[in-house]
From TrEMBL:
Segments forming domain PH: 1-93
InterPro entries assigned: Gab1-4-like, PH-like_dom_sf, PH_domain
Domain of life: Eukaryota
GO CC list: cytoplasm
Native organism: Lottia gigantea
A molecular function (GO) term: signaling adaptor activity
Name of the featured protein: PH domain-containing protein
A Pfam family per the record: PH
GO biological process, one term: signal transduction
Amino acid sequence: KWKKRYFVLCKPSGSLPGQYELNYFSDEQCTRKKGTIDLEECEQIIESLDSDQFPYLLAIKTVCRGKERTYFLATATEEDMAKWVSNLCSVCGLKQEES
């Protein structure tokens, strides 16, 4: 079941250089925080996934305490997807693959 969420890429206060997290919220004003993705645990960013329901779908694969988890994010435009992938790869220290 898909749930609409709003994401904010941020650097937690007091964090070390290069540490980022992706907070997600249930409302567009970002007042009701639902959770956090620790990008230190990010293993892979996958863009342009095949989906009949969402044309601009990407995935964030993480491993935390030996447990794999994949988060799926859908954007409104291809440009938005490319920006998210580029920024996430940059803060996660991953090399973006050529399309």
